[in-house]
Amino acid sequence: MDITLTAADGHSFAAYLCGPQDARAGIVVLPEIFGINAHIRQMADRFAAQGYRVVSPSLFDRATDGETGLQLDYDNAGRDRGLALRKAIRDEDALRDIEAAAAALKDQAVRLVTGYCWGGYLSWRAACLSNTFAAASCWYGGGIARHADDTPRIPVQMHFGGKDSAIPLPDVEKIQAAQPGLPIHIYPEAGHAFGREGTAAHPPASAALAWERTLAFFAEHSA
Question: Which of 8, 177, 183, 218 has its Cβ near the most Cβ atoms within 10 Å?
Answer without folding.
Answer: 218
